[in-house]
Amino acid sequence: MMTLYKTLIRSKLEYCCPIWDPSKIEEIQLLESVQRKFSKKILEVQDMDYWQRLKKLNLQSLQRRRERYSIIHMWKICNEVVPAPNNTTKLDRFRSDTKQGPRAILFSSSSSTPATLATSTTLANPRIKTQSSITTLYSNSFKIKAAKLWNKLPKEVS
C-alpha cells in the first residue's frame, strides 16, 4: 500500500515542488491532509496520531520534503549541476564565507542590491508595515525561500 501511495499519489503532490511550493498555511494543510488521510487508512497505524504514523511508516511530512527538495536544488545551482535562474554567474549568486561556507545572496525585487530581510520600523510608527501582493509573491518565490533555507544550513552540509 505504501508503494502505491509513494508512486501514484505523493509523486503528484511533489511534482515541481521547488518551483511550486505553497506559502499559505491553508494550502500547506490541504496538501498535508492527503497524506494524513491516506496514512489513516493503514490498519497497523490508524489509531496513532499523524506524527506517530509518519514515524512508524518512516515518512516525512510533505512540507519537510518540499524544503529538502528546495535545498537539494540550491546545492545543484551552487555546484553548477543545473543552470541558475536569470543567467547570473556563480559569483553573483553565492559568496564564500570561511566561517559558514558558501551562502546564497538575496537580491531585492526592485534592484540588484542585496535585500535586507529584517523589517524596519520607526519610533513614530512602531507597527509592522503591510506587504504588497508583489512583495509577498517575491518573498515566497523559490529564489528567496530556498536561499533562506540554504543559508540556515551548517557549514559542514553546504
List the keywords.
two-stranded antiparallel sheet; mainly alpha; single chain; 158 residues; elongated; 47% helix
Would you kindly provide a written description of the structure presented here, covering whatever features stand out?
The protein is mainly alpha-helical and 158 residues long. It is 47% helix and 5% strand. The chain has helices spanning 2-13, 25-40, 50-57, 62-78, 90-93, 133-139, 142-152, and strands at residues 94-97, 101-104. A two-stranded antiparallel sheet has the order 1-2. Strand 1 (94-97) and strand 2 form a beta hairpin. Helix 4 (62-78) crosses helix 7 (142-152). The chain starts with a helix and ends in a 6-residue tail after the last helix. Mean pLDDT is 76; it is low at 108-131.
Distance between the termini: 35 Å
Estimate the mean pLDDT confidence. Answer: 76
Strand order of the largest sheet: 1-2
Task: Please count the helical segments.
Answer: 7
Task: Report the sheet-strand fraction.
Answer: 5-15%
Shape: elongated
The helix content, as a percent range, equals: 40-55%
Q: What is the secondary structure topology, with strand pairs?
A:
Elements: H1 2-13, H2 25-40, H3 50-57, H4 62-78, H5 90-93, E1 94-97, E2 101-104, H6 133-139, H7 142-152
Antiparallel strand pairs: 1-2
Helix pairs in contact: 4-7
Entry summary:
The protein is mainly alpha-helical and 158 residues long. It contains seven helices and two strands.
